[in-house]
Amino acid sequence: MSDNNSIYISSLDMNRITALLDKMPNLASDLVQLDAELDRATVLEPNEMPPNVVTMNSTVVFKFTDSDKTMTKTLVYPSELKSSDDVSIFAPVGSALIGLSVGQQLAWPMPNKQTKTIEIVDVVYQPERCGALNR
């Protein structure tokens, strides 16, 4: 874990993700973890979001710390999955990415009872940084 373990989420993303979670009758363990992450997040208005934070619809370069291989994915809502370049907020990797800043690391439970540490390498695109505050 990095020294700075704060995470940030926009009020818009918080409201949308929480609404989706509230519609689910029983949360799977990985979604319970997402819910806990949201509880510890600092909520900001979209126009206050630091430019290096992963938000919904951001394109992010990340890696697992046990490998030098980087991956680039766009973080989306489940209904917006269109290609292998997208990752759902409800997938373990997607849940781990939300709210992290460039350089931060987070240990996160993965399928098969594994825990992997994800590190944010770059936020290539962030809607808030580009003025898309209501996406």
From TrEMBL:
**Keywords in alphabetical order:** Kinase, Transferase
Annotated ranges, domain Transcription elongation factor GreA/GreB C-terminal: 50-124
Where is the Regulator of nucleoside diphosphate kinase N-terminal domain positioned along the sequence?
6-43
Record-given protein name? Nucleoside diphosphate kinase regulator
Write down the Pfam families for this protein, in alphabetical order: GreA_GreB, Rnk_N
| Organism of derivation | Vibrio hepatarius
Which Gene Ontology molecular function entries are recorded, alphabetically?
DNA binding; kinase activity; RNA polymerase binding
User: Which InterPro entries has this protein been placed in?
Assistant: GreA/GreB_C_sf, Rnk_N, Tscrpt_elong_fac_GreA/B_C, Tscrpt_elong_fac_GreA/B_fam
Q: What is the lineage of its organism?
A: Bacteria, Pseudomonadati, Pseudomonadota, Gammaproteobacteria, Vibrionales
GO biological process: any one?
regulation of DNA-templated transcription elongation
